Structures are given as C-alpha cells and as structure tokens.
Request: fold
Amino acid sequence: MAINTITYADKSAIYTNASIPDANKVNDSDMNEIKTVVNDNATLMGDLTTLNTTTQSSIVGAINEVLGALSWTFWDSKTGTASITLPNSFRELLFIVKINNTDTLNFTMNVPYSILTTTEQGFNGGYYATSTGTAYCRVTSTKTSAALSAAFFNGNNAASATVFSVYYR
Reply:
C-alpha cells in the first residue's frame, strides 16, 4: 500500500489582507509548505507493499513483526541427556548448555534450520579452560528433536547434572 500524498495543485493567493497578521491566517505559502512536507515524508516512507513482512499496511506493525522475529522464545529445558521435541516451525535454534547447572560453565550454540536434516548431527559446544578447570559439551539434533549428548567437567562426565535448554525464533 502506497502512502497517500496531497495531490491538489499548489495554491496561489487571490486575495490577501495585509491588515491581518500572518500568525492569524493561512496563506498560500503555508498550504504549499504543508503539501511539500507531507509528500516528501510519504516518498521517504516508500511503498509499504515492498516490505518483506506479512504486515504491509502499517510501518509500526512491520517493525514489530521484524523485532518479534529477532526475539528468542523459550521452548524447553531438560537436565541430563533426555531428548527435547522441537517446535513445528522455526528458523533458528539456540542451545544453552549449563554444565553442572552453573552460569559460569555456559555454552551457547546457534543452529539455523537450513543445516538440520532428518539425520542426527552433532554440534560441539566448545571447550572451556581456566586455571581451575576444563569443560566440554556436545549436542545432537535433527529437524524434530535435540538432546545433550555429552558434558564433561575436569575430565569427569557431568551430563546428568547439566541443564540443556532450547530457544527458537
């Protein structure tokens, strides 16, 4: 939907009354200025039907749709290696792994839908190492389910005490 513009011809004064101050009347220049500003803003806004959103009649609606698409929605969380059934529709997953259920041993993985298949794939969450410890995790996923497959802390299996959470957008 194109934004409406003012289509009347520019106004020209046919009668002016100099005895009335400009602040108390509307002149042709005022009307033409309003027309110019409105039409320039309509041009800057563009044609809403060209937006790559389903909302094409409201700029605010389209912005809210885009922002909503960027927000993560919590789906499910499990402790240990139990499988999580994924939502029916998503573009991207966010896996958060908290080894020993602590915020200090956190791994995050973003997985786009386009790389998932019906065959299980593994994703290494990375390695964590400090002077006081090491950690590692691995997650497996298909298009329909995901699970923590391994979690280690200081060389010891920590999967049973690890929280695996799934978010989507």
User: Anything to note?
Assistant: The first strand starts at residue 73 and ends at 79.
